[in-house]
Amino acid sequence: MNLRSKPLIAFTLAVILLGTAFVCGCTDSGAVPAAPVETISVTGSTTVLPLAQLAAEAYMDTHPEADIRVSGGGSSVGVKAVGEGTAEIGMASRDLKSSESETYPDLVEHVVAKDAIAIIVHPSNSVSDLTVEQIKSIYLGETTNWKAVGGPDAAIVVVGRDSASGTREYFQDAVMNKEDFTTTQLEKNSNGAVRQTISQTPGAIGYVGLGYLDGAVKAVPVNTGTSIVDAGVATVISGEYPIARGLNMFTAGQPEGLAADYLAFIMSPDGQALVAEEGFVPIA
Amino acid sequence: MEQEQQATAHPPVSAELSAGRNAYLKERIIRSVWFATAAFGALSVFFILAFLIKDGIPIFATVTPGEFLFGAIWNPTGAVPAYGTLPLWVGTILVTIGAMAIAAPLGIACAIVIAELASPRVRAIVKPAVELLAGIPSVVYGFFGLIILTDVIRVTFSIPSGETWLAGSLLLGIMALPTIISVSEDAISAVPKDYREGSLSLGVTRWQTISRVVVPAALSGITAALILGIGRAVGETMAVLMVTGNASLIPDPLYNVLSPIRTLTGTLGIEMGETAIGSAHYHALFGVALLLLVITLAVNISAMMILGHIRAKQTGTGNGPGRTAALITRFRREIWISVAAILLLVVAVTVSPLAAVLLAISGAIWWYLLPRIQPRYRQTAAFGLLYAALAVVLAALAIILGYILINGLPAISWEFLTTAPRALGREGGIFPAIVGTLCLVAGAIAVALPIGVGAAIYLVEYTRENIVTRIIRSGVDLLNGTPSIVFGLFGFSFLVIYLNFGVSLLAGQITLALMVLPTVIRTTEEALRGVPASLREGSLALGATQWQTISRVVLPPAMPGIITGAILSIGRAAGETAPVMFTAVIFSSRFLPSSLSDPVMALPYHLYILATNVPGAETNQYGTALVLIALVAVIYLVAIAVRTHYQKSIRW
Q: Which residue of A228, B28, B63, B103 shows the fewest CB atoms closer than 10 Å?
């Protein structure tokens, strides 16, 4: 029980612990490789985000003095952020709402790419095509078995996006005629999460941007009545695919400085090549 | 000490007087400092509450409180927006009940094994393992649940989707375990040896000693452990939102554990970041956060009342646990009968009445036979069950860790650890995220540890129960039950928007510090209380001042407990996603933060993004998960080594 020496050790250790904590916090934040000269913040839609991030990386590779910070949040956040001046560029996977253009009259829209919303199911699902009406009926909760739309005899698991999503908003306008989704809809907060769930769930249906299509899910062609259209770059350019929209970046007034250079880069052939690489549809 | 003794041996009168006055002044100052820290801990929760109310109240301009609470539809962006939170809070309650049904028996059983049965060598392995379970970040649990657990559930029950209430409860149960185990274990270990020796010397078995003497004596601590577990389950965000499907509906029938479900926290997690600031939806989400706080408040208050009741019984009669044990024994029959009745009712409705009858008959046989089995055999059976519970918990840990280790190792390379991410994190490394997480944790602990330890010292050493301490204690309890996502909302609303810090390292550090503060306070308090009063009395009787007593007699033996608290806090802070995702993090950055006002990358958020937002990043997902766990494990190992050192050297 030699308690005498204990307090000394105790306090030394406490001091060391705290000390490391402080030193760690300070040196880490102090050690910066080549401080960037100009910083811009790009925020908003998770649909546009992959494109913005890739373009930012490519741009920063050739311009080491630039720091372009890309973050998600959703279309509404993007519009809000650029409108309030907390970000230089806002991303949105939809057009401005009338309320937004009233609040922020000086926002300038830059269409950086086009995108189709693909209807996706599990690869094992045998459904051959769906009409927009059938999709709507599924999302209303009126059609609940794949058998009713030419698929296997299995319950439909309806997967959608969270209520702040621009993709959901567009889908609700273009497919649902603004009617409400079924309450049994599973809600995911990103395209990637929807894709993940669909790839694991044989009975599920979901919708994602073109950039999120891969072998793990099957995109169901849309039956327009006259023809059966695959979701893809060609059908969006030709205007055949019915569920397609523009992907936008907004600036407050005309862009300046790094923001202008960055946007110009996205619009350039190099930038549009990235658009195609990420699975979106280049603009003209 | 020696100097003072000399001073009293040769007393120059004026020097002695001024020394006394100085000492008195010093004592006062020290006391005030600790009071300030305690007050800070308590006030911050009221401040959080005030801010939530400020941002939540405007929703009632759109809907009435009745509609908000009991409306069955939550659809803020529908053609006609609906803000009914009924499905959300019912979901939260159901998921929590499910989680506790799993975690409470397993947790208490494990705590008993660790504290009473395990050999020191086994304990030296099991205890760190349990702490590692606590260190696994919720986003890793969610990641594991999303990829493995939901799939297993879907196949096992052949249902269309595995994203269910059951998946949420299973994950939450596992996540609540470490809290329940470590706090219960501390409580059981704190039961004085005399009780055990007294009981054993009467000739009863170890199991009888444990079940009739030790556990009842530790009951208040175990209750506290369960409440902390409930708090963890109610407030958990990331894991839940990744596995429960987030369909805003009430399970039909109500006990359908295979239904998707949505919790209050999940709603905040998926909708908060995407909602336009100042919209009705935004205010509705703050309303949801308020509701969440009120639920945790209700849980905490009922818990405090239970604890108060037990304490009153103990101190009221003055002969402690014997009396409590008798009390429990008297109530045990009623408790068992009501639990059995509820269970039978559930079985009768869900499975079939026949099964319920069979269950009732086997239960009756059990009831009849149990007292007629020799205590020795009962002990064997009980110990077997306890060890089985421990095995289940360790197996869960092994499966999760093994799975991430096997899939994550191929991703690890020097380049992965030291370069910035490329192509959305599909390629390149995670260096900025590692640094970001370290900065966040270091800042959070640097703020929380001094304040937390100070507050605990004030509460335990300087005060008797009065109205002030009761307010402080309630504030800390409430802060403890406050869900991490609520800290995130508060940090966003207060630090990021109101104080205009922006999304920044500093905002994240402060938010995390607030979040871990109650853990530090609670564990430190528990540790200080574990020090026998006789030591303090002995020290004071020798003429030591209060601060001398605290710093030289009370704190050293309490160090292992305080360090345990710091360990738990570091683990939580490093792995938390919800508090930082609105306050401190960005999606991707190739630069390290250059000041406290820069946003940072953080490992848990990076994993969340890779798992849910970026297709084709599988390798780096596992790699990030592995690095996150490894980072936490290293922090733990250092801290555990420190604690073991103390435990070896201090025993009374």
A: B28
